[in-house]
């Protein structure tokens, strides 16, 4: 009996200790996670290597772990990754998340980019569904690290393949012959230039002398321009002044002539209206008088003074002889 009683007592004590240990462990777990915060990250890239329990770091410092990975039902091209982060981690506006892969197969969630003084990422009080579709704040995702490199690897390999093909075409037999000819021509040109080195040096020296002469000629042209400016200032300007005076005098004379014509205009009008018609009548009378005098003179010439008094003498009649 005593042996059984001892076994029962030992078993009871062990069970009690196990229960206390379990309760203590649960209490510690709750105590450690009472300030933990959950966030969602929506990745549009592959999350290969990330699994529940994967590490979450902030600027390289371990800060939490991955809780859940699932497709987002509203848009299956996004993969939703829910993480649990310690309460003292500064998840502020400007923080971004990226997958930091490794060649060993495991990947971690890398958080960084927090700005000093920025507010914490929280669900807004107004319209929280738009910013927090699943009830927890969302950390923006970005492609980076090895994940971005692996995502761009197919495109990079395609470009490398295209580049390799083009290099192969460029270095074909025909192009190699052309390149060899170009190199040979370049070699001959270099030798020709080396042989003509003294002539090129002499040409450069002559060019230098020509440039110096051109500089001297330009200086002389500048001096000539200065002399021309002086001549214009000393001789032409007085002549221009005299010309201006002559123009002013001529203008005054024209003004005086205009005034004189204006004063004589009434007399001219009277002369044209009265004197000219009378002079015309006088000229007509003089013409008639001249015609009469011409007739008298003609009569005196033909018949003398009697021609003016009597009729003209008829010629004597002589009968015709048979």
Automatic annotation (TrEMBL):
Residues 42-112 form the Mce/MlaD domain. The chain crosses the membrane at residues 7-29. It comes from Sphingomonas rustica. InterPro entries: Mce/MlaD. The keyword Cell cycle does not apply. This is MlaD family protein. It comes from the Bacteria. The lineage of its organism: Bacteria, Pseudomonadati, Pseudomonadota, Alphaproteobacteria, Sphingomonadales. Keywords: Membrane, Transmembrane, Transmembrane helix.
